[in-house]
Amino acid sequence: MDILSLFVILPVITILVLVFAKGLKQARLVAMIGSVVQLAMAINLLFAYFRERAVNDSIMLFSKDLVWFKEFNIHYNIGVDGISVVLILLTAIVVLAGVFISWKMEELPKEFFISLIVLSTGVYGFFISIDLFTMFVFYEIAVIPMYLLIGIWGSGPKEYSAMKLTLMLMGASAVLLVGILGIYFNSNADGGPLTFNILEIAQVNIPFEAQKLFFPLTFIGFAVIGALFPFHTWSPDGHASAPTAVSMLHAGVLMKLGGYGVFRVAMFLLPAGAMHWSWFFIILSAIGVIYGAFAAIKQTDLKYINAYSSVSHLGMVLFALLMLNKTAWNGAILQSLSHGFMTALFFALIGMIYGRTHTRDITKLGGLLKVIPFISVIYVIGGLASLGLPGFSGFVAEMNIFVGAFQHDNMFYRVATIVSVSAIVVTAVYILRVVGIMLMGPVKNEAFLQLPDATWYEKAGIFLLLIPIVGIGVLPFWLSELVMASLQPFIQGVL
């Protein structure tokens, strides 16, 4: 069995075992074991990748190609580079942390963990796919369980939020499918057979008129799940209604499919279209960065604050990708990783606070640092990482983005960069505002004086997410070099 297919097969085995699990204890034990094995596989893949890369200079390693639909030249074609490997590792960590945070899930626990693992299966498959059609199938597998996870296990207006999320993402999928088919039917421009293979299409000179037409469709199709302004409105509502682990996977992992798809498909296969349309989408991305930050200031619900923060941070990923240079692209990948860990940590902490206080309204909270010090201190650390303090992953990512973006001589790019950089100040405002209101001062509600601090399984989930945030910030070079090496063939294709 090849090393990559296991990332699809093992979750399916975990799901089959979960079907026969009885009660919460068995369900969470099976989910935990399955997730621990997936994390072990992801760590093994990282080291195997380093060993293989030392002797193999192929763009994608551990490739496997099986014919799926011969008539349309659709293949189960998989492979990874350094970017895929680190995103798979991100997914494995967030999934395991989500299982720990959902340790006390009482309502339909077996079905909940099955849906969670189906989502992760789609994400793994998406990150290892080289065939566009196969990638699209895994993309849909990852998106569809969100409707059930929010609609069944969510809170508040969960039916509305689940329906809104599903309709907007399915609409984006329809647009994306048109873009993918447009690429497919232009993949024989140099006289070869039609193909969905990304590496083969990259060698084809797709006509400029086709690139101009299909780039915006492909970009928007992927970027909607990456919270592109003004198509971001599904995200805050979805986050607010989703259960804690689902918010963690939604923001920490699922939304990364957008930036990855833009990078791997839209930018790489349609470079002329990217250059033609970059100015337009840079404007939308810069607006999203600023809008998300200012919108977060106005919120009082902790989940909405983090959701709008995600709109801002993921807008920065799209902004960096549109800069079309290696430094900014490196920052985009690092920002995807950093945001994945940070936002999953935030949602985990918000879930812990809500589970104890039964409110997410910061105006009703206060003095929690005295009552639940461990959770409060970790929240402050997460906040410092989010606003880009040196020593944390956010600083490394944002410095690469802004340095790369400012390398352009064109005044338009530099003005857009300055506008986006200003979001850091706004981020500091809403982070410090939440910390001041929620954690500092006297305890506003006497009932909160008896609140328990984090349990062992909650601490396990927290440390799984916190260690990479600090690790990337303190020792970023190995990761940056890994990403940079994987960017080289893609940036050559674009420039």
Automatic annotation (TrEMBL):
Location within or outside the cell: Endomembrane system; Membrane
Residues annotated as domain NADH:quinone oxidoreductase/Mrp antiporter transmembrane: 130-419
Database matches in InterPro entries: NADH_Q_OxRdtase_chainM/4 (IPR010227), NADH_UbQ_OxRdtase (IPR003918), ND/Mrp_TM (IPR001750)
Main location: membrane
Signal peptide: none
Sorted UniProt keywords: Membrane, Transmembrane, Transmembrane helix
Superkingdom field: Bacteria
Membrane topology value: Multi-pass membrane protein
Membrane-spanning residues: 6-24, 29-50, 74-100, 112-130, 136-153, 165-185, 213-234, 246-270, 276-297, 304-324, 336-355, 367-392, 412-439, 460-479
Family: Belongs to the complex I subunit 4 family.
Listed name of the protein: NuoM family protein
